[in-house]
Amino acid sequence: LRYHKRTFKCHVWIALSVFDFVRNVFEAPLEIDAIFYGKYRLSIECSVIGYCSKFLELSSIGMLTVIVGERYISICHPGMLIRYYGKRAFSFTCVSFCIFYAAFWSFMPFFGIGEFVNHGEYCYLQNITKPSVVFMYKLSLLAFAVLLPVFILFYCSILTLREFKQAKERTINVFGNVYLANDCQKEEKEALLLIIMTVIMALTWVSYYTIHLVLANHAINKKVIFTGEIFSQLTTVSTPFFLILTDKGFKATLSRVFLRIFHKISFKTKRHVTVTSTQLFKINKNIKEKKYSSQYTSRVGKFTRHSEIEMDHKIQFEDVMRNVTK
């Protein structure tokens, strides 16, 4: 069960999550304006705002699905990944498919279907000209762009958790290796945490899209819209925590940064330690001896390894011959 690096997709996902968060920050005043007045104050960038919002939301969900799905394949079916695809080709295919999938579902505001629709001089929150088409569009978004990725996340996380449980039992009962069992237990905890976060994300996204389905059906209420925006902000803020809690590389970089900061602070607060001349002479002598021994072993290391292997074989052969003669 080797850990598969996924730095490229994680960096893309971080960028999408950050852009989605920035988009929500700039879009929040417009949505608050729509809550109280029912329409936005601008109409030129209406379809552009609608496209960017949907693209960032769906691409961030899809990229997280790609990361978890590739982790499941690399852990549970590593031979299939190498035999049929290759790691780089599979990663590039998944990322490109995720981007094109999000772009396809986000093009509807350019055709006058979606949350941000031009009507006269204003940009309305809901489509007042085609309510039935908007309802079908929202329903298809909920099915194919939210529920399907959430189901893949949940399925892959459960199977990965089961694989790590079986690996932990095998390493303890068959091999008796405690260190591998501890590694499997850590991975098991991370998979369980991913399942919990997936359930939380599913609840927030489903409730958010359900509220917009109610909006598309003309059941307009200020409290309902405000609740939907709260769920949207919660999902946007909570998605980057997936990477912090489940990715080893990201946690390692964070720990290095905190350790460096702590080391600098502790180094500044340390007292000055006096060292005598004899202690300095001994330290320099030890350093020179270690350098000379490391250089000597690097040169003669090949011959010493072969001689040690030959001696081991001789000792084993002598033991076998003694047992035979007895």
What does this molecule look like?
83% of the residues lie in helices and 2% in strands. It has 326 residues and is mostly helical. The chain folds into two domains: 1-246, Rhodopsin 7-helix transmembrane proteins (Rhopdopsin 7-helix transmembrane proteins); 251-325. Strands 1-3-2 form a three-stranded antiparallel sheet. α5 (131-175) packs antiparallel against α6 (178-216). It is elongated, with a radius of gyration of 30 Å.
Offer a few descriptive terms.
326 residues; mainly alpha; Rhopdopsin 7-helix transmembrane proteins; 2 domains; 3-stranded antiparallel sheet; 10 helices; 2% strand; elongated; disordered N terminus
The appropriate CATH architecture of the largest domain is: Up-down Bundle
Order of the strands making up the biggest sheet: 1-3-2
In terms of quaternary structure, the protein is single chain
Low-confidence stretches: 1-6, 267-276, 291-306
CATH class of the largest domain: Mainly Alpha
Number of strands: 3
The total tally of domains equals: 2
The largest β sheet comes out as:
3 strands, antiparallel
If you compute it from the alpha carbons, what radius of gyration comes out, rounded to the nearest whole angstrom?
30 Å
Strand content: under 5%
| Total number of helices | 10
CATH superfamily of the largest domain: Rhodopsin 7-helix transmembrane proteins
Average residue pLDDT: 64
Head-to-tail CA distance between termini: 45 Å
